[in-house]
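We modelled the chain as a single entity of 351 amino acids. Its sequence is:
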Amino acid sequence: MNSPVPFPTVGTGRKTPARDRERIEWLEVLQGFSMLLVVIGHISLSNIAFNPDYPFTAALERIIYSFHMPLFIFISGWLFQLTCLSSDRHYRSVMKRKLSRLGIPFLVFTVVTIGLKLAFPGLMHRQVDTEELLNTFVLFSSNPLGEMWFLITLLILMAAFPLYRWLDRHSALIWGCCVAVPIALFFPDDIMVFQLSKVMGMLPYFVAGLVCCRYGVIERYASNPIFFTVCGSLFILCNVLQLYPDIVPVRTATLVGSFLGIGLSISVCSFITRLNPATFSSFRRYTFQIFLLGIFFQMAVRYIYGAIGHLSPLLYPLLFIISIIAGLYTPVVIAKTVERYFPRLKLPLGL
């Protein structure tokens, strides 16, 4: 979830000197693509997930939700390997930086959301009470702003930094990924304290990101047409099989489908980068800010649709597009304004 910055060149499996730095264009395109998926997945104008009344958008949401958050976790793991494990940083300095970058926005946006819920209780599905505050600030099992689970999950995954470093130094990251897969498949899915079920479910994707960065997997294979064809075909097949849980266990199909979605996304973005490396450049530097802010403006569009959507069937596609634009570019405008005029607010926005 970090905004793109100059990164060390990778692909050799060796640590790269800081002087050999360049922008990783395919990664920037991938970050923009993944953020676009999140914004589309958050539209939900009817406030009903996978609404059968709108089969096209329901299918689109279902496909996006099958892999978009694992993709973000994978990218975070890739960046963590590049910026932390590949350097000589100490655990304390790594976690201090991560707590600052992720923890402060978590607190700020959680408090803002609580304030909105208290101010407009009639517009909110879940009200704020003592139990909700306990779950939010002590147990971290829920949050008034639903997507905050991602930040808690990411922080806990990163807190295992010493384990990743040990595996990295003993060339055992691949074995760590192999162990993470059965953990994700068999760990109970209802342990919400510290988001443990989410953490274990996302562990394979995070470690896979470490592995792919460490051994230059993406640079070697992502642009291969065979890789694209295989990932694409199997991804379609896996999404079809998920509709028939009696054939393939849901968790297995979800895990495999997520990895295929990640592989397909990376391959698509590798080809896009060759054609136009500036793709998504209008917003890809602000993916974290879009993640934090975009949902509020999409909720506003959702409210407008609820109020006037019955007036014309044309309002649905129109507001669908408006929701994408609002979710992507309003946070960009806010972030750029803060960078220029209100630098003291940069930290709460994760800038």
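As a brief sanity check on the tokenised model: Residues 1-22 have pLDDT under 50 and may be disordered. The radius of gyration is 20 Å.
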